[in-house]
Structure formats: C-alpha cells, structure tokens
C-alpha cells in the first residue's frame, strides 16, 4: 500500500502555488479548490477543482485528505460541516476564528496574557467616544473582519472624524473595534509551525518593513535585535500557537516599541494562520521553508529543521506600480539575473496591477546593508524596469 | 505585454517533475509531453499533452517556446524537423548526439583533447579480437546507444566470451564499441550549465558512489580531492560544454584513477545533457539548483550563483528493493522526518519496483562522515522500513 497522501488547499493564490512547489518534492498530491484555472495556483497544479470557497457543496466536492487554506475567508460553519463529514481541517475553525475576527483574537490574547494594545469593541458612536477618551485620542479604528494589507484600518485625526467614520461604517454593517495606536519603532514577525499532536518549531524572528500597510521587505533575522526580546517573541508565538490550538503555520505580526524606560517591548498586531508573506525568505534562506513546514504540520508529520543557511536573507516584494513597463516581465527577470546572479526570483503568474503582489525576490548574504540593497534594487527593477 | 515564457519538456520522469518545481517559482509555464497522466511528471504538472516522444506529430503538437528534455531518446531527425519548423531546441541535436552515441562522443572528446580511455568501434568479431589484444584483455564492451544505469555494458573475462558476446549482439543489431577498463579509485561528476550565448557555470565536483552501475550517493564537494585536479575537472566540463555546443545542464561523469606515479588523474566515462542524478544535491545545498539552472540556460537567461550553502551536502538515492515493505511510504517518510529533522525528502510519485529510482534524500552538514551516515540511513529506511 503506497497511496499518495493528499492535501486539499482552499484558495488559488500564490500561497497555494508555492505549497505545490513543496508538495511535488514531498510526494504529496496537492488538490486545489480554485476560482479559475488561470489563477496563480490553478495555472501550475494538476489536480484542480473549480468552485467557490463560500459554497459548501464545492468544498465537499474538493475535500480529500487533509484540508488547509490559502486564505482565511472560508465561512466557519462550512468548516464545521466538513469536520462533521469526517474531514481533517487544519487549522480548525476554533483556531481560525482568531485570524478571521480581530476582536475575538484580542480578547483571546488578553486572556492568555499575550501583550496587546488597549482595545474595545465598538457597537455605537458612544462606544467610539468612550474609547477615544480612554486612550487620549490615540485611536486606530479597525474592521474586525475582512481587512488585509492596510484595508479596513483607519486613523481618525479627531473625535468628530472618528464619530463620522463609525456612523458610516456601522451603517454599512462593518463590525468595528478600536485599538490604541502603538508608537512602534518597527514591525516584527514571529513565525511558527505547529502539528495537531503538539510539536511546534519557531523560525528566527524577522523584521517586516511596511509601506502603506503592506509588507515590502522582510529581513531575517531582525537586525540588531535584543537577544532576550527575540527569545521572548519566539516563545510568545509558540504559546499563542499552543493556546489557540493552531495547526500549520502561524504568523504573529508584532509592533516593537520603546517603553517608558526606553526598553524595547513588543505588542501583537495581527495573526495569520497559513504561510505568510514575512516567511517567504525561508524558501531560500532556511533548511525547511514555510510551505514545506505547513504541509508537514497540517498532515501531523514531524517538523523540519529551521536553521538559517546564510547569515542574513532578505525578501523584497514585487508590488505592481502605477504602470506596467513596456519591457516584458521575462526580460526584466533576465536583466535582474544578469546583474545579480545571487537573486532568487519568485513570480506568481499574476497580471500586473497597482499595489498587487505579483512576486518576490530572496537574497542571502553576509551583510544586512548590502543584501537589502540588492533585494530592493532587484524588486524595484522588476516593478519599474528602471535601476534605482 | 507580460506573456508567460513557456518551456516544453519532452519526457515525463522525475527530472521533468523537478523542473516543474523550479518553473513554478520562476514564473515559467512548463508544458509537458507525457506518455501517461500518472507518470512522475504528469501527476503534478498542469499543462500536459499526452503523446509519444518518438512520434513527430506529437512533438509538433506539444512544442511551444523552448523545447528541452527529460531524457536523451528523442530521434535526432525529429529534432531537426522541429528546428526547421522554427522551434528552439536545447540541447540541439548536434550536441545531443554526443550523449546518445558513446562512440561519436569518444571520438569528439579525443578530438578536443579531453582524456578518454583507449577505445574502438566494433563492427565484427575481428575488431573485437584486435581491441582485446591492444588493451591486454582489459576490455569493457558497450552498446554505443541506449544504455543507462549499467545496462548495455559488459565485462568479458576471456577473449572467447568477448567473441561470443559480440557475435550475439551484432546479430541483434546492437551497435558496439570497446573501451579499456579503467582501474578507477572512485567516480566523480562535474556538472555545468551553459547558455546558447556562451555563459557557462560549473558546480563543485562531486563524488558519485555507484553500486552495480547505478549511482547510489553523491557527495558534494568530492571529499579529499586534490584542488588542482578539482579545478581541472571543472575546466574540462566547461571545455566540453563549449566545444560540443551544449545548452542546458551537462553532466560529465569521470573516473578518478592513479597514474604510474601514483598521482590522481581523470578520464571521461559518460556525458548526460540534462539535469543529472549526481546534481540532485544542488536542490538543497546550492544557491541555484540544477533544475532552475537548466530552465535558465535553455531559455538563454543569465545563470545563477552556484555557491554551496553548507560545507557538505550528501544525496542518497531511494532505490526500490526486492520487496515493498508493508509500512506505507508516507509512514516511512514520517519516521525518517521524526529521526532526522534535517533530511530533505524528495519523492517521484512512482510505484515501488526493484532497482527503480523512486526518490532521493539530501542532507547538509559540517562533517562528511556524519552527513553520509544520515543520508544513507534515511534512504535505507525509505526503501526497507528498517533502520541500518
């Protein structure tokens, strides 16, 4: 009996695409529920079922082996229905809700003693006013569901602006919460993978460089980080994975800020329960990539080593600009390869669109400054066809 | 204009499968001519055309973008026909004939001054007798076409045995040559990749450990190798790639032997013009794997860095044994991962059969002895479900 194990991935984006890369080598059949055959993952995977992740019949049609996700948008009740059918779903709905609902997540994190900024659910303009007063106007307003990459986050500059926003958004049935703005010095990301049977492995903590709410760069390991704080971030991510019962990869996005004594501290910003943009560097900088580890974890296979294979690895996103240059992408790739033979190019098979993640590059080296420079220069050329 | 570049691969084995792994990340559409959908590569690739590589119509139907190969068995005249159609074929038929015909290859290598053992074409029993005498009976008889993994090679112990073999094989229309047996101390492999426009990059020379004519292990770099000889092997492989006009990956399999003064020397054994078993270690031990480099080279893209990412990487083949153990392969993989979190498992989606290559493992480390031990132990368990 040598039946090939199957992992079914719901969602057809670049994360599913890059899971397939690893599934091929592991000898795992990757089965995909895709919205379209020409989607990022649908283009490259053999075993594709077309359908809608919001439709339980489609989910039932595709589900085989272990079910996992490329995104967090599958309705919770459908996941329960699949589990009732006897299907293994990882991460499970009880864990996943913490990545779907920011208010649920913050309440849970507070309960387990994880550091979160002061927050409150906002069901009315009166709630908003009270929260404004409690944090001296340092308010970040968030949609509790559906936000990503800076969408669903607002920074009102006055109480009036907050009230107007809350009135409008509640009118549109957007569930809201307020959170105290964190005067952070930088953003970090602590990734771990966890198996259903409990094994957890954390990668090194990385610095996540953001622009307009979108990750543009990840530097592994986070440069100049206090060793004690780095250890704390790893153990915090392990604790969150354990306490929330996460299976697969968990990304804990963190703010690093200075406390009253000028000492660096962290607070949790967001959670994601799937391979994450801040973990793409592991493809070329680590013994086990996040995509391989995710496939191992959701199948409850033993996890792989997470040692880095270079002193520093930098990931830079290729984000579509305002205008797609005339020079074809394949030609841009050639020019980047010509200049930088050490750059690893990863493209998602997506059309160019402003702000869209269409690929990333990974570069490993000895020096943070030099390696960042190369990664940024390569990514910039892929976007603009111009050298920085 | 962002048309996705396409590479068409003829042949549905594990080499095509592992090319797809890299094609996904490079954003290259990999199109496959497969004999069967459930072949090693056909299982995992989206863009598959079913057909026969010996049939020109099938080749014409599939050919798009650049055409390359998973094996060397496409008839030369079909390759010329494709080129006449305006298709880019890499490696081209003039180069490829040297990997298809051992006699043509040896004549060419002799012409360019590459070290080859004494050899002669054998068209008759008289030729065989003359060759036997010229090399004092140290004869290796080879089929000039169609051999692989020890098939098509004979070591006659007497002149009579040679005569009998030659008579029988010529009667079956097997084209033959004789080669002087090399009293080698070990086998080496020098891999390079070359672009049509001329750039060539050699990987470090590896030791190829063979059993019954099949590679069972590759150790990168070849342990205890004389630095001057290692440089010579690399430059020899570069020279062969240049002189033969190879495009894509070229593997130069070498014998290392001691000359009359006890100094190590090398002679060329075989050539392969595609990613090669002795280059699988590059997937986990090198900045650029042979599969990525092959895709870059055949498209005439700039080649990637070939630096090693660890002091030593060992590849051990998973070769089917006499009996497929009861413990399912997926369970064997789990046990290997449990014991060795540093082992990278690569499976080909093939059914178990005695002597068949069904996968390999790569292990990186600091020490050759320890790393080999782990690689061998892991591969042995995947084959037998028993620990060494």
UniProtKB/TrEMBL annotation, chains A, B:
**Domain ATP-grasp positions:** 106-299
Q: Which InterPro entries match?
A: ATP-grasp, ATP-grasp_carboxylate-amine, ATP_grasp_subdomain_1, PreATP-grasp_dom_sf, PurK, PurK_C, PurT/PurK_preATP-grasp, Rudment_hybrid_motif
Top-level enzyme category:
ligase
Quote the Pfam families the UniProt record gives: ATP-grasp, PurK_C, RS_preATP-grasp-like
Residues bound to ATP? 102, 142, 179-182, 187, 269-270
What is annotated about its quaternary structure and interactions?
Homodimer.
> What HAMAP family is this protein classified in?
PurK
- Name of the protein: N5-carboxyaminoimidazole ribonucleotide synthase
Recorded source organism is Corynebacterium breve
- Recall the taxonomic lineage recorded for the source organism: Bacteria, Bacillati, Actinomycetota, Actinomycetes, Mycobacteriales
